[in-house]
Target: TetR/AcrR family transcriptional regulator
Amino acid sequence: MARPREFDIEVALHDAIDVFWTLGYGGASMEELIKGMGLTKGSLYKAFGDKRSLFLMALQRYIDERLTRYEVGLTRPGSPKAAIREILLDYVKRATDPFDTRGCLVTNTTTEMATRDPEIARVLAGMFARLEDLFAGAIARAKASGEVDASKDERALARFFVLTIQGVRVMSHMRPDPRHLASSVEVALSALSSGPISRTPDNPAPAH
Model:
């Protein structure tokens, strides 16, 4: 009978996410991963394979957890338009959190690896496609309920909001004032209606 593993695979995988998230793929040596995951070299290789295989597993787990958060937020009961606004403004809060300057693992990986690793590029493209689907679904429901003009193209708007999220994350590294980023989100949200753009609060709620 095979000897049972002496560590929790899920805990170890989340520890790997933290290492890659902090150091990037290129900066995360096997020594750093072994240290961060609290495993021996043999245990790491046996459970996860090589560094690249481990990274793909960690990235997919990170993506799955983020998409679940978006799905819960964008499919909740109530106003779809309000849900979209809350999702985007919540992203601003998280992107400007002064206690976590690592950024987004997806955005970091896109800039570091997408142009030179086709498999990772496909994983990232799948994530963005799923996020677009979630936004498009929320916009379609908003159209059906009369919150958004029926002539609006939900796919074009969904792609626009995905681009907005990525833009917020990139710009948060250069100009992290949440008021500036929140005002840009309000401009993006104005695409959902012909009404006036909502005024951004002078003192938005702090990030958590």
Remarks:
- Residues 195-208 have pLDDT under 50 and may be disordered.
